[in-house]
Amino acid sequence: MTQDTEISTLSAEQARDELERLARLLASANTAYHTDDAPEISDAEYDRLKRRNAAIEDAFPNLKRADSPSDQVGAKPADGFAKVTHALRMLSLGNAFDDADVLAFDASIRKYLGLGQDALSYTAEPKIDGLSLSLRYEKGRLVQAATRGDGAVGENVTANARNIADIPASIDDAPELLEVRGEVYMSHPDFEALNARQSEMDAKTFANPRNAAAGSLRQLDARITAARPLRFFAYAWGAVSEPLAETQMAAIECLGTMGFTVNPLTRLCRDPGDMIAHYHEIEMQRATLGYDIDGVVYKVDDLAFQARLGFRSTTPRWAIAHKFPAELAWTRLEAIDIQVGRTGALSPVARLTPVTVGGVVVSNATLHNEDYIAGRDARGGEIRGGKDIRAGDWVQVYRAGDVIPKVADVDLSKRPESAARYAFPDTCPECGSAAIREEGDAVRRCTGGLICPAQAVEKLKHFVSRAAFDIEGLGAKQVEQFHTDGWISEPADIFTLRDRYGEGLQQLKNREGWGEKSAENLFEAIEDKRRIPLKRLIFALGIRHVGEVAAADLARHFGTWDALGQTIDAAAGAAACHLRADQAEAEERRAAEAEGRRARIKSTRDAAWQDLDPAAHAAWSDLIGIDGIGATVAVALVTTFQQEAERASINRLTDRLDIQPEDQPQTADSAVAGKTVVFTGTLEKMTRAEAKARAEALGAKVSGSVSAKTDLLVAGPGAGSKAKKAQELGIEMLDEDGWLDLIGEA
Length: 746
Hints:
Blueprint: H1 12-35, H2 43-59, E1 83-85, E2 94-96, H3 99-113, E3 122-128, E4 131-138, E5 141-147, E6 153-155, H4 158-161, E7 177-185, H5 188-200, H6 209-217, H7 222-226, E8 231-240, H8 248-257, E9 267-269, H9 272-285, E10 293-300, H10 303-309, E11 319-323, E12 328-340, E13 346-357, E14 360-366, H11 370-374, E15 394-398, E16 406-410, E17 435-436, E18 445-446, H12 453-463, H13 476-484, H14 491-494, H15 497-500, H16 504-509, H17 516-528, E19 531-533, H18 534-540, H19 548-558, H20 561-570, H21 572-595, H22 601-609, H23 614-624, H24 631-642, H25 644-654, E20 658-660, E21 676-680, H26 688-697, E22 701-703, E23 712-715, H27 721-729, E24 732-734, H28 736-742
Parallel strand pairs: 2-11, 19-20, 21-22, 21-23, 23-24
Antiparallel strand pairs: 1-6, 3-9, 3-10, 4-5, 4-7, 7-8, 10-11, 12-13, 12-15, 13-14, 15-16, 17-18
């Protein structure tokens, strides 16, 4: 599967993998943008990834992750600042990317409000590319300034905000409480002057004005902020003791009369035609505004309508950002390098002659996989008109792709005569092991496993990541350092650092960047994580296809580590049968195609399973019967546990841990406790994820397939084969209303 695979062609397992990949990329992007002030991808690519994530969630609602990017705003506040809990959450905006999206936005507002063709006005204003800031005034005096953070909790930057000239320290005729929201930014001339001064002092320069503004506002030393030319546009409000006005436009004008700078390009629009016209007017002025913008924001003007429309989990219904198209640039591809990831995937990376794209200097770009380099998609069809990519090519890039930018096109007229077609390696560049590409996989993978240093380091980084063990003081940088020094080679080594190195504390405290206190804090943090929830341990192992959601599903179903391990071991024979059946089925399909006959798939698959031990079959059925856990995940689990070196490494780790069983729900009055429930069809009063969570909270087991063990099938409109099978097996069936009545929520 490639990153551009059509969603309609994804299997459930592929969709789960893609959602895991997108969650990882978007979480990294959020941290880079909001916490580190060092964006890794463009706004356009971030938006593309979020759209793809949302589309997959719509197509596979039961696979939506607990950490879904759709439910997140910003990123966790950085250390070093006091935390501020926002009285009203600071949300992000939904996006529009073309005129059709704007028309759809207007239509959705009218439908929600039941307005038909009645008049409906909107405001339209430039979307400033800066750092969101909340200013709290009490009795007209500025008492607190906070960044957005993750939307719920931000950073207290009051001392720094007082140094921004556009932010008044006090305002006249203000309500008792007024929270003004807006954007901190830096103008183009001020940005250029700042970078010139930084260069003269041999200090860090900034990639773009947004980074400069965010980095300047989030200085622990307010004197540094005072020396930076920051500006502020006010465009909204949070908590207020009394309304500012009856409309968005009037409220903005009110903020202007109080002394705040409001954007002069804000306009009142009577219909979507006016909105789109103003968008293009602003777009034409974009290069001459003197500050960065990345689109135009539309808001319903009537504040009473805004109140009726309300909010989704992360965005208001009454506003949307109409984004500008991504920017492109041409440059020279100097070389193609191969990086090896945690699962052994060989990922090609283009090394570019540095070029500025969207205000950021780009020197690397993803090339995805060997098919992409060759000019093919996952099904063998042409991309880029079939043009392959070679070292020495003149290529078009835009800020997109897998964290780093993407190569969009090749100019064959500028291809050097000496440019040779790229030969993708069939051995791992890190350890020399064979790199194989399995049937149906778009990626070539190193078979070295634990002997491959690249995989070992990436697995360790994953092990200490936030959703896994999250050991304070032991991040990716420290993992690389300790692995290079030979201190840790596998997860179990982390928990023996103090024991294995009798003088480990002395060794560590003498390293650059470490002192006695920080070394002791690290050892204590490691000890704190010996007691670990089961779902975090499962996720931390970094087993292919097992993301956070799958780990939680497994933990919830089995309850304990021993129960999970015993089932996986018992299912080993079944996993082998499954793989043999897949191979036999593929061979039968090929033979049938060559002979012009219909493939005998069922008989072929049945033959592969006929001698299977019943206990193994039962264990396999238990694994794949868990809702959200299919054969792909089950095979990955069994394969990992059956590899001698991997299993020994896992055992060394678990011997040093206190693994906490999954909490069991309180089900004393539950009508479905202990029952196996299957949901099928379309649920109209709740999402599939909500239904599953509620059933599990009541002590039920939710399965993705109907079997003799199923106690209850909840069928909505569109129920198909599952409902038919339930009828054949005599399983009790309920519609959604019946289900709600059964659990007491009708």
